[in-house]
Structure formats: structure tokens, C-alpha cells
Design brief:
With 370 residues, the chain is α/β, with parallel strands linked by helices. It contains 17 helices and twelve strands.
Length: 370
């Protein structure tokens, strides 16, 4: 690391210097290195900090603590990336309070910009877990990365469902990478190291603190092109994440739920205030990602694979063939007449094809080919 990068690491280790104050200091002095050359009066004026914080800045001026931090990161195979580096995540550069320093363990690449942040309650219902699992499975099939905060509940389900489907997931922490939180997710965090990436802006040994999590949430919101809220109370970190995503110009989706259920109050409120309704994962793909070629390719590959599943089923192929000739759709009787399949057998064929996404039942019990 050069001296400017080390200076950024040193400033980032001063917990009182929240991102906006750190950015103000760097802008005022022209570089992180120059901050350590300023006097207390200038530091207080530039960042609006207390004198004791200015005194702390001076204690870090020799960069000794930063050098020790870099050695500790190298020992634990953790990469330190500053905002002036070429491999700094592009989406974070667009927010006003970007983290000046990131700690990354695992593999984060530019392709992970094509991701969905999935957030929700720490105490989800079975409904919330099932929805999260189904949505994440589809995101993986479309080649998307998932992002969440490694908290208990929906966050954990997001990471696990993604990994179980051989997808890539990114966890953003509100503590240092060498402090495991929650403790029960230690093994999961280590698995994500191997198959995804874990990111934090906090120094390696920083303990979790409730004031850290809103900062974590802004990174979760900024990293992805869309944020999905599955279940959440009205006053929750998940809604903070959704509000930040909207502020950053990202698409915000919410899964609706029962009107009297506590953990559906958050998503239902978001929908009332303009968030997109997410009834199925395809809603997010079609709205946010349909213009990206690799997602289209993933969807086409998925359909090709499903077609192979029915290739040995003569009845299914016959139904698909006749429906392809109709623009307005066909009734049950019409399909039966054209294929020669009796109604009792045809009903189960149509149901299976609809569940697999090949056809759709329209009003009046007519069917169209998708």
C-alpha cells in the first residue's frame, strides 16, 4: 500500500469519523495524507468534530496502527480496498456517503453489480422463509448475485438459499470481519468466504453495535440494482434499507402479506407508498433486469432445460405444438379435439405445463403458450 492508501485505512480506524465527516476532511485537505498534517483547529472546522476526535486523528498520524491493520488483513486473507483503487465496487461510488475503505474476503467482481438485495425480519414466519427461498432460487437461475446483511432470519435464509442452489451471495457486515456476529452464523460466514464475498467497512476487530447497522444497510442498498423486502415491521432496519435504496435511485420491491400480520406491515406500507409489488421473482427480473443480455441468456437456458424435461412426454409436446398455432388461446375442448387427448388426461397435462411455466390459463378456461 502507498502512503495515501495507508492514510485512508488509518482515518477509517477512527470510529468517530463517520463516512461523511471523513469525506469532508479529505475534500478540505485534498488527500487523506494531508489530513494528518493539519492542526486541530482545521480538523474541527473541516469535519465538525469535537476536539477529542481531532486529538485522536493525531494519534493515528504515524500510520503505525494502519500498518498493523494491513498485516492482520494479509494474515487472514482479507483484501483492503480503498475508494481510489480500481477494484473498488462501482455502485458505491454513486452515493454521497460512500465508504472510503472496504474489507473484502472472498471474491467480489464487477458482475456482482447485477444483484438483488434481499432483506427482512429477524423472526420471519414460514411464509417469509418459503418466499425467500423460492425467490433466491430463481435469482440464481437467472445468473444474479444476492446481497444481504448476515443477520438472523430473512438475511440468513437469503444466503443459505442462494448457496444451496449453487449461486453467489454477498454478505455485508455491521462489524469487523474478524468478529463473528451473530455467533451462530460463523460457519455460514466462512462458507460465504469460499463461495461468495463478505464485506465490511469497519476495522477488522470492530465489535457489532446498533449504530453500525444503518451504515451497513446503506451498503446493502447501494450494491444492488434492486432491493426486495420480504417481511418487516414498520420500524425496522429493512425499511431503512428500502428507503435508502429508493434514495439511491434503485428499484424497491415488497412482498405483500396479510393486512393484520405484524411482519407484513412493513412491505404493505412500502407498496402503499409506491414500491413495486413482488408476487413472484419474475416480476423483479422483468422490471429491473430484462435489458441485461446475460439475464436473458440465463432465462433462455432455463427454458431450454425445462423443455428437455418434457421432450419425452408425447402428450405435453402435442399440447405445446397446437397452442403455438393460436394467438388468442384454445379451450380445453379445442385442445382435446386437436391433440386427441381425452379430457381426463388432458387436465393433468395442462396443469403440469402451467406449473412449469410453458402455458398460462386465461379467463374462460382458455390456454395460451408462453
Amino acid at each position: 500500500m502507498n502512503k495515501e492508501q495507508l492514510s485512508l485505512v488509518a482515518l477509517n480506524m477512527i470510529i468517530e469519523l463517520i463516512p461523511k465527516k471523513m469525506i469532508s476532511l479529505i475534500n478540505y485537505f485534498g488527500s487523506a495524507e494531508n489530513v494528518f498534517k493539519g492542526d486541530n483547529e482545521e480538523i474541527i472546522k473541516a469535519a465538525g468534530v469535537l476536539e477529542r476526535t481531532a486529538d485522536t486523528v493525531k494519534k493515528f498520524a504515524d500510520l503505525k496502527f494502519a500498518e498493523e491493520e494491513v498485516k492482520l488483513a494479509e494474515k487472514n486473507n482479507i483484501k483492503i480496498v480503498t475508494y481510489i483503487d480500481g477494484d473498488y465496487p462501482k455502485p458505491l461510488k454513486d452515493i454521497c456517503d460512500y465508504p472510503s475503505v472496504l474489507y473484502i474476503k472472498g471474491n467480489y467482481s464487477n458482475k456482482d453489480e447485477y444483484s438483488v438485495s434481499v432483506v427482512g425480519s429477524r423472526r420471519p414466519t414460514n411464509y417469509g422463509r418459503i418466499v425467500t427461498d423460492k425467490f433466491c432460487k430463481h435469482f440464481v437461475e437467472c445468473g444474479l448475485t444476492t446481497v444481504s446483511g448476515l443477520a438472523s432470519g430473512i438475511d440468513t435464509q437469503t444466503h443459505i438459499s442462494t448457496l444451496n442452489n449453487n449461486g453467489k451471495t454477498v454478505a455485508v457486515l455491521g462489524n469487523g470481519l474478524l468478529d463473528y456476529y451473530p455467533k451462530e452464523n460463523k460457519k455460514l460466514q466462512e462458507t460465504i468466504y469460499e463461495k461468495g464475498a463478505v464485506i465490511s467497512e469497519f476495522p477488522l476487530r470492530q465489535r457489532p453495535d446498533k449504530i453500525n447497522f444503518p451504515r451497513r444497510n446503506r451498503i446493502v442498498a447501494a450494491l444492488s440494482k434492486a432491493t426486495l423486502v420480504v417481511e418487516a415491521a414498520l420500524k425496522s432496519g429493512s425499511l431503512i434499507t428500502a428507503e435508502l435504496a429508493a434514495e439511491y435511485g434503485k428499484d424497491v420491491y415488497a412482498v405483500p402479506g396479510p393486512v393484520y400480520a405484524r411482519y407484513s406491515e412493513g412491505p404493505n406500507s412500502l407498496i402503499k407508498n409506491g414500491a413495486f409489488v413482488a408476487l413472484k421473482p419474475e416480476d423483479i427480473i422483468e422490471q429491473t433486469f430484462s435489458l441485461f443480455d446475460f439475464v436473458k441468456t440465463a432465462k433462455k437456458e432455463e427454458k431450454k432445460n425445462r423443455l428437455q424435461l418434457v421432450s419425452g412426454d408425447g402428450n405435453s409436446l402435442a399440447v405445446l405444438k397446437v397452442l403455438k398455432t393460436s394467438i388468442t388461446g384454445m379451450s380445453l375442448d379445442e385442445i382435446s379435439a386437436k391433440t386427441g387427448i381425452i379430457i381426463s388426461d388432458l387436465s393433468s397435462v395442462l396443469l403440469r405445463l402451467e406449473l412449469d411455466g410453458f402455458i398460462k390459463e386465461m379467463p374462460g378456461q382458455t390456454y395460451i403458450r408462453l
